[in-house]
């Protein structure tokens, strides 16, 4: 059955490209946060271990929401490491940095995801896709808040 939600196919595909980048950033940030949860050490272990767990669980749910929005637009969502690697702007961490560097990397990651979200909102608004713009506005606010909370640990 053909989709008819009031957004032209080319516009849905353009919005889905933006969302695919946001999904890749979200999933990459999820992986990095989960990695840091497992491997954090130092005097902040207890608080960071718990904080990272809350954050990676939120990112996991967010990735699902973004992927489902792509499907709502009748486009297939990327779902492999190689696809995410090509789409994301989040730098991979191959080692185990000190806790302060972990926090700094997550601040940077959330700021990158916030910038991707802003770009996605602009693309959604240009396509008349209020549903995507609304959903991604929530994602933007979450990334900004998380970046602020993490940044506060470094002062």
TrEMBL record:
CDD domains: DPS (cd01043)
Family matches, as PROSITE patterns: DPS_1
InterPro entries: DPS_DNA-bd, DPS_DNA-bd_CS, Ferritin-like, Ferritin-like_SF, Ferritin_DPS_dom
Origin superkingdom: Bacteria
Residue intervals of the Ferritin/DPS domain: 17-154
Molecular-function GO terms, alphabetical: ferric iron binding; oxidoreductase activity, acting on metal ions
Signal peptide feature range: none
Family: Belongs to the Dps family.
PANTHER family for this protein: DNA PROTECTION DURING STARVATION PROTEIN, GENERAL STRESS PROTEIN 20U
Protein name: DNA starvation/stationary phase protection protein
């Amino acid at each position: 059955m053909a989709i008819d939600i009031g957004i032209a196919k080319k516009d849905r595909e353009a919005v889905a490209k933006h969302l695919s980048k946001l999904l890749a950033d979200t999933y990459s940030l999820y992986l990095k946060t989960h990695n840091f949860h497992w491997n954090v050490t130092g005097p902040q272990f207890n608080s960071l271990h718990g904080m990272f767990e809350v954050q990676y669980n939120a990112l996991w749910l967010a990735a699902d929401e973004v992927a489902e929005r792509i499907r709502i637009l009748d486009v297939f969502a990327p779902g492999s490491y190689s696809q995410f690697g090509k789409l994301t702007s989040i730098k991979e961490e191959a080692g185990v940095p000190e806790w302060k560097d972990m926090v700094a990397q997550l601040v940077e990651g959330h700021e990158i995801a916030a910038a991707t979200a802003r770009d996605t909102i602009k693309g959604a608004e240009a396509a008349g896709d209020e549903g995507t713009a609304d959903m991604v506005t929530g994602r933007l606010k979450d990334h900004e808040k998380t970046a602020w909370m993490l940044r506060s640990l470094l002062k």
